[in-house]
């Protein structure tokens, strides 16, 4: 029995009397502690898959099982790191994390333990120094780190990341990728991450799930990345396993499943 | 913004006085003067024009000099109380403000709750919005006979008129604010499994606060407009009655003084609500 199982997940949206099938027959099994990336052209339904696992969208067909239990509503055991950080702007960095911790771990931890846990998670993403700041006072990379801290602080079974570094500049992105790898190594979370950055997918993932173009998008191919951890980006540049995996993904995205509009 | 700068200017001058002038720099004095001098100059010109125009024989209104002379008593002693409705302006204003405070507070509570309902529920929106759109166009005074019939007393009727006048902008702005809560915040709340009360207190109210305070600001202005008119009709103590009473006694100068009070108080009420809004939203209104 896998940790997280998607079984023939499909979803259709009806708008103005016209039904569009966005996803069809998405089957995926993810093991505990695995880091899985979803990659595909924009509009292929990557985010839709993630939102179904998060419970924010309901699958029209098929379903999602987490530890044998069906997912049918959002919950903190499937914490989401949103693409645009989604921090509440009227709360400080610490209050944003505290909102999650105080709600999710109320029964599990005493007040003092929760205080400590909030500080622990802020320290994990190196945000202790800015804990009193409000989101509009910190940079985009910092906001994303707080978003990650908030998600991790919920002690989720699965961490869902929707293009977490998409809006960041290359240097900040590399820095956060390193931090994420370090955290993943330490906490052994199960992670599903959406990306459209090939290098990011290869560097971070145990497996890369490549999606075909929509409508009726589905999983085209799954590529294992058998690189040992910890991984260091500088050493990997020349690594044959790395370059091979990178070539495979590029081949899938730009040769076999090039975006129709781009290919034409 | 205007509130912030004005208060900033005040704070700077006050600090300067307290610390025996080390903080009053030439630049801050210049900035202060730039804000204070133009309105004073315009006011002086206005008073001069008024004086000249109303000095002519046969002028309908008294010039400022005569207003000062005739209304001297009520200007220097706003606190006298000869019993009945023969009281100083302070007592009239205070009675009006109490009515506004009560009516406006009720309108704020009911308006925010109804606005949340309309903003959150598609069905409530469809059912209530047409009714709101019709009711909100009814002039405040048109409600007065109805409320007098229902309450059979001037005091609650006046409060009801304030309530019914100021509630519409609060409802409408709150609803817009709730409708504009970003889907992201709703998703965060869903992942955290916030219950309805937690969602209301921790996400909806703070997120919609800038809109709510816009509604409250319009509402408080409208209630001040309505109370003066309502008091003219219901009598008793109150600034509206004072003005009507002065008119009946042909004390035009007293009316002019009362109008200055009404204007200043209305301005202060507006700025007060804006200031509270600025504090509550912690300046994140634009975020």
From TrEMBL, chain A:
**Keywords, A to Z?**
ATP-binding, Cell membrane, Membrane, Nucleotide-binding, Transport
The entry's cellular-component GO terms read:
plasma membrane
Read off the Pfam families from this record: ABC_tran
| Membrane topology note | Peripheral membrane protein
Q: Where is the ABC transporter domain?
A: 6-238
Q: Does the keyword Iron apply?
A: no
Please list the GO terms describing molecular function.
ATP binding; ATP hydrolysis activity; nitrate transmembrane transporter activity
State the PROSITE patterns in the record. ABC_TRANSPORTER_1, ABC_TRANSPORTER_2
Q: Which SMART domains match?
A: AAA
Q: Superkingdom of this entry's organism?
A: Bacteria
The subcellular localization recorded is:
Cell membrane
- Give the family from UniProt: Belongs to the ABC transporter superfamily.
**Protein name, as recorded:** ABC transporter ATP-binding protein
Organism listed in the record: Methylobacterium oryzihabitans
TrEMBL record, chain B:
* Major localization listed first in the record, in broad terms: membrane
Q: Which CDD domains match?
A: TM_PBP2
| Record's subcellular location | Cell inner membrane; Cell membrane
Record's Gene Ontology CC terms? plasma membrane
Q: Name one GO biological process term.
A: alkanesulfonate transmembrane transport
Tell me where the transmembrane regions lie.
Answer: 32-53, 100-119, 157-178, 224-244, 256-280
- Protein name stated in the entry: Nitrate ABC transporter, permease protein
């Amino acid at each position: 029995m896998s940790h997280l199982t998607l079984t023939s997940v499909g979803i259709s949206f009806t708008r103005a009397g016209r039904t569009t099938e966005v996803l069809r027959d998405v089957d995926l099994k993810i093991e505990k502690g695995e880091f899985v990336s979803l990659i595909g052209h924009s509009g292929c339904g990557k985010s839709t898959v993630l939102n179904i696992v998060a419970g924010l969208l309901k699958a029209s067909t098929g379903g999602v099982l987490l530890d044998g239990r069906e997912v049918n509503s959002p919950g903190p055991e499937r914490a989401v790191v949103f693409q645009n950080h989604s921090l509440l702007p009227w709360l400080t960095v610490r209050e944003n994390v505290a909102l999650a911790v105080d709600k999710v771990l109320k029964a599990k931890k005493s007040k003092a333990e929760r205080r400590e846990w909030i500080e622990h998670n802020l320290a994990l993403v190196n945000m202790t120094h800015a804990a009193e700041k409000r989101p509009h006072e910190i940079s985009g990379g910092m906001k994303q780190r707080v978003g990650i801290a908030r998600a991790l602080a919920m002690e989720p079974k699965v961490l869902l990341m929707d293009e977490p570094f998409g809006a960041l500049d290359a240097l900040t992105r590399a820095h956060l990728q390193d931090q994420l790898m370090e955290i993943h190594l330490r906490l052994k979370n199960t992670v599903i991450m959406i990306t459209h950055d090939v290098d990011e997918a290869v560097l971070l993932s145990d497996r890369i799930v490549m999606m075909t173009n929509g409508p009726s998008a589905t999983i085209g191919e799954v590529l294992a990345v058998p690189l040992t951890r910890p991984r260091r980006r500088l050493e990997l540049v020349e690594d044959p396993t790395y370059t091979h995996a990178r070539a495979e993904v590029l081949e899938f995205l730009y040769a076999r499943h090039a975006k129709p509009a781009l290919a034409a | 913004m205007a509130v912030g700068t004005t208060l900033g200017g005040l704070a700077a001058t006050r600090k300067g006085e307290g610390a025996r002038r080390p903080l009053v720099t030439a630049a801050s004095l210049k900035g202060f003067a730039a804000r204070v001098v133009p309105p004073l100059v315009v006011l002086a010109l206005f008073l001069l024009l008024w004086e000249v125009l109303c000095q002519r024989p046969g002028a309908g209104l008294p010039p400022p000099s005569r207003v000062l002379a005739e209304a001297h008593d009520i200007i220097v002693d706003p606190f006298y109380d000869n019993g009945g409705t023969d009281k100083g302006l302070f007592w009239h204003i205070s009675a009006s403000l109490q009515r506004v405070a009560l009516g406006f507070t009720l309108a704020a509570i009911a308006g925010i709750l109804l606005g949340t309902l309309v903003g959150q529920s598609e069905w409530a929106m469809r059912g209530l919005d047409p009714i709101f759109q019709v009711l909100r166009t009814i002039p405040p005074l048109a409600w007065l006979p109805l409320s007098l019939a229902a309450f059979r007393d001037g005091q609650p009727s006046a409060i009801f008129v304030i309530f019914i006048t100021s509630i519409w902008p609060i409802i409408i702005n709150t609803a817009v604010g709730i409708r504009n809560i970003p889907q992201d915040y709703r998703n965060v709340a869903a992942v955290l499994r916030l219950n309805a009360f937690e969602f209301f207190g921790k996400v909806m109210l703070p997120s919609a606060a800038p809109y709510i305070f816009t509604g409250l600001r319009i509402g408080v202005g409208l209630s001040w407009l309505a109370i003066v008119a309502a008091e003219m009709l219901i009598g008793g103590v109150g600034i509206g009655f004072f003005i009507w009473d002065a008119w009946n006694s042909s004390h035009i100068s007293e009316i002019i003084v009362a109008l200055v009070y009404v204007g200043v108080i209305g301005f202060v009420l507006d700025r007060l609500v804006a200031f509270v809004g600025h504090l509550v939203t912690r300046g994140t209104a634009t975020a």
